[in-house]
Design goal:
By secondary structure, the protein is mostly helical. The protein contains four helices and two strands; from the N terminus they run αβααβα.
């Protein structure tokens, strides 16, 4: 399959957005959230999570640190 054909198909997929707040808060709606996660995994293979309670600043910091991962460490000999 050619790369442009694969890209065209990828744009047809809607990214499932799942609010996991009931899981975080141990709410009554945990089973429906779990069902939504299962369906997203089966249908799309991945999903976007909201309602997790992670501070946006933590995500920003993680992104910054991930860009440093794999860089050579000064003073270290790589063999």
């Amino acid at each position: 399959m050619q790369a442009h054909a694969m890209a065209a198909r990828a744009t047809d997929i809607q990214l499932p957005v799942i609010d996991v707040a009931p899981l975080v808060a141990c709410g009554a709606d945990q089973h429906s959230v779990a069902a939504a996660i299962g369906a997203a995994c089966r249908d799309a293979g991945f999903f976007y999570v909201v309602g997790h309670g992670v501070a946006p600043s933590l995500g920003t910091r993680l992104e910054q640190l991930s860009r440093e991962f794999g860089r050579p460490i000064q003073g270290f000999d790589v063999f």
